[in-house]
Amino acid sequence: MATEYSGGGDPARSLALLWRTQDGPTSGRKGRSDLGVGRIVRAAIEIADADGLAALSMRRVADHLGVGTMSLYTYVPGKAELIDVMLDTAYGETARPEPGPAWRDRLAQVARENWAMYHRHPWMLQVAAGRAVLGPNAIAKYDYELGAVAELGLTDVEMDSLLSLMLGHAEAAARRSVEMAQTEQRSGMSDEQWWQAHAPLLGQLIDPQRYPTAARVGAAAGEAHGSAHNPEHAFEFGLQRILDGIEAFVASSG
């Protein structure tokens, strides 16, 4: 469940931080020589990676850095603007290898890198896209990813729409994967272990005569995946079907 919104702070201040047009103190007060936006953001990401976005606060970041909370406000106006810069910093980590000749491979690489990004930083899935974070890393990522479909003869709007479709799939699949991992961590029981423990009772409740298709398909999927759902399989299966659909769309568009 999303707990924060991107673009929720002062837009002018967020843009100044994102593009480092003001990397020093944001007030008239003199800042500490050992602090800076970059160090503050790295500390915030470390906290969010370890404990989730709910654990993030300006005070927690200050404690992590061993400084007073008010020292942070000399550089960052508040938590909302800090989250914007955290997102842009994470976008800057995405791999951008030299594009290959096959557009399907290029677009698949984009999807898999976004899947990996959300697993590196699960807290990103807790930030709802209230407003786009238009920082330098976000723009560079968007520009690179558009290159995967740049030579398909599509309109600019179609290129943007196809990329959004692919990124949406990667985000949704990663969200399910991360939620399953968090459930396992909280319960101390894997999804496979949970289903095995409840299989006898479920077998009594799900009558194959009443639910013939569900019983047959559910049993086949459970045997294939070792649980009710396999996030990696769902991601890759959906990825290939989306690529098939794009290929058909491009062919129909001439």
TrEMBL record:
GO terms for molecular function: DNA-binding transcription factor activity; transcription cis-regulatory region binding. It comes from the Bacteria. This is Transcriptional regulator, TetR family. PANTHER family: HTH-TYPE TRANSCRIPTIONAL REGULATOR RUTR, TRANSCRIPTIONAL REGULATORY PROTEIN. Keywords: DNA-binding, Transcription, Transcription regulation. It comes from Saccharopolyspora shandongensis. One of its GO terms (biological process) is negative regulation of DNA-templated transcription. Residues 34-94 form the HTH tetR-type domain. Residues 57-76 bind DNA. PROSITE patterns: HTH_TETR_2. It holds the Pfam family TetR_C_1.
